[in-house]
Amino acid sequence: MAPKTNGIGVQVEDTQICVVMVGLPARGKSYIAQKAQRYLKWLSIPAATFNVGNYRRNDSPQPSADFFDTNNAEGERKRRAAAAAAVADMLKWFKNGGVVGILDATNSTKERRKWVLDTVTSHGIEVIFVESKCDDEELVMANIRDVKATSPDYKGQDPESAAQDFRNRIRNYEKVYRTINADGDEDDLTYLKIMNVGKQVIINRIKDYLQSRIVYYLMNLHIRPRSVWLSRHGESMLNLEGRIGGDAGLSYRGQEYARKLPELVLESVGSDRPLTVWTSTLKRTIATARHLPAHYNQLQWKALDELDAGVCDGMTYQEISDMYPEDFQARDEDKYNYRYRGGESYRDVVIRLEPIIMELERSEDILIISHQAVIRCIYAYFMQKTQEESPWVPVPLHTLMKLTPRAYGTEVQMFKANIKAVSTWRGKGSTAKHEDPSPDGGV
Amino acid sequence: MDTLLTAEIAANAPRYRRKSSTFIDGIHDVSDDQGNMAPAQLYSTMSGRLFHSGRIAIVMVGLPARGKTHICVSMARYLQWLGVKTRIFHLGDYRRATVGDGGHVPQDYFYPNASPASVMLRQKILKKCREDIYAWLNHENGQVAIYDAVNPTASGRRSLAKEFAKHDVQTLFLESYVDDEEILKENARNVKISSPDFHGMDPDEAASRYLKRIQEKIPVFETMEEHELNYVKMINAGQAFFYNNVSFNYLSHRIVFYLTNLHIKSRTTFFVRAGTAGEEDSYKADAPLSEEGQAYAVKMTETLLRHREQERKVLAERSGRDEPLRPLTVWTSTRLRTIQTGDPLKEKGYKVRQRSQMSQINPGVCEKLSERAIRSLYPEEVERHELDPYHHRYPRAESYHDLAVRLEPIILELEREQNDLLIIAHESVLRVLYSYLMHCSTMDIPKLKFPRDEIIEIIPAAYQNEAKRIHIPGLDPKMIPGSPEDIRIPVPGPPSGQLSPIPGMSSPAELPEMVVTRPPEKVVNKAKEMVADKVADED
Q1: What UniProt keywords are attached to this protein's entry (chain B) (predicted)?
Q2: What is the ipTM of this complex?
């Protein structure tokens, strides 16, 4: 296969992987698929999920449990057709440069898995099966009530009878379900089997680094409730002059924000449980964190330092556009990939933030005090912002953001300190100065 | 042998621990201050323990010739790199020390129905080793003790976990389970059979005999199935993993992630510097290669390819068959100089990948300053830097430690890579990657030297890698020492390839023009010979 580049000369992964989900309904397959997709896309690895259920729904929007009975020939045929349509679309997507395609379906029989494997590998794509197996009836029922009873399949139906119908649907799957390699004849497959939310894990025949990375990421996911708090540093002396980068101290108003921050944090946490505070190594974030309670553990990360503007460090936008007019324009055209001369691009920042995201996924209750570009990248990870959007997200000064991951998506709350600050936001293609973000561009 | 203490005294000393009885892995011989061995430690805590994990015993499980020692050594190297205080305790050392030189354990030592005398001996040895583990965890802030022994029975493992729990130590078992005959024989051939017992014997024959001998000595081995224990079962050298996680978290995930990328397949890593850039280059400007730099790229490429061809011929002669070359992959940073240094290889059709993590160390305010200027502008920083050149960071600059953290994903990918690999990077990046592969102390990392006229070749061996230096002939001597764009952070010791007199050779005035300080031609590793005495080492 010829090496591919992503348009700016950086070579992309040359393997293509199909992640095939396996497991009975209500085992968190879609949750895993959704998280993995978000993580990979954030790392600029083209990823997409193909949910067979959605294909089936086109044809049979609200089927009852009988539909899923293996003796129901009509249902069986339709479900097969839905799977075939999903796989066909996925292969088309791979042809157009997809790297990790996730096939979200039960794939609960050996025959079905073999069919997927043969179809996909014949196109030169590697397959890794990811099975979620759960025998804990209570966990399953909780998942059904939380997620499934509100699924489009049961729109407008009584939740309790919906849950019951769904339970019956699962029973139909159980009749034919074989866990991967139950009979020892699927030992050649590459697979990850997660049992009872990570109590036991089997990893079989991992072939390359990207696969091991996916496996590692999935192993770090946990379902304990938690939040992540994000704040920029208080207004800095260079912010006042409209200069980017640098390592300046806080302005008077910035210091005021630092003093107000403990109160904001307390209000948003809602209890006195301590947070762990991560700052960058630059003066302005460390100064912003200095008034937080002493029992909060504080760590400095070089990886949280602001995007390095290279030769433009310490300049105003006006100076940059005067000295490097072409660069200024090039940055507007593709801000995500634009790398300052001798500095970094947003893409580079994302790559250096990767270990931070892994740490965040496994941790609970972290407060991050960092810089505009870095917060944008972390925000983009949680909110699944595209590369076109993420570098333009307004992250106002003197505002604390609380992100709470939920089953499908992340909830955002903003806590304003009501301390004035200059704007450090600039619209795309606009004049070379900071301005107020347009109202519809708000977070 | 290697110590003045007699074995008996050693074994009965209150805190006996092997220092360097076999030299097998270079890990036991580190200074007690393991802080120096932690290039990529993310943060530090008062107790010195990381990842919100307490004290952990990783207990190895598996018969001899299952690659346990290789796993222990690699894992310890990786954990220490992450800053986790890790130490290996080989039960075999305690047994050898207890039975003394030339002594043998009784025939029934490993039998489930061993005689009372053998059971007593076994318990005495075990106790000694466990006491050392506790002492290290309790009094030296150790975090992960790797306990290397056979641990063949479920009941033994259960009581071990209980015993550790009593001392507030969590236990993670790591079993290396092999049922693939080929892997078993390969392991046996590689490590064990250079013993005189098998002298002159056909290697396959010797391997079979050795394996048979193990089976006679240790007749009962139960693979792990204890559902109440935390364990990772590594099957057939990483083909599959089974992970039973009762209460463990991040650290064990991390270990599994590392192990999934570890492989024993032999392949070579080459390191070279990038060519030189034009005069006006700086960290920020990212200048392209100068003409000399381009000429360097061509010569380096020629030397490397010639060397690989030679190696191939040697191999072919030795085996009597035509051996195909392993494919070669090239990694560069995203800096122009490294990319362009890889161009001649790219034109020849080699795969070149750019890795943004491999950019050189950021010099911050020191950029373009002479050492004198740095000293006069930032005298306090220089003072602090000299105290700890590894962790200290000049204003806006990166420390070597920052660089190591940034390079961590590269390290794992390096472990995973199956092809031969050429890394073209800045000297600072080579220092950190080299230090991982060769296990250098953080005190030495900023001083490691990579003159431009050498290709470093690192060949993995069972217990420790071996580094060789290949000379690139015909280079302009001007480009060999630190290039003009190099960072002038004052580090103790002369920069790579700097002129310096060699003591005792001749007076400086008579020195030829280019005498450079260089590390030895080859860092030879004798791991294989040194473990030959472990042939009778059955736990």
Answers
A1: ATP-binding, Nucleotide-binding
A2: 0.71
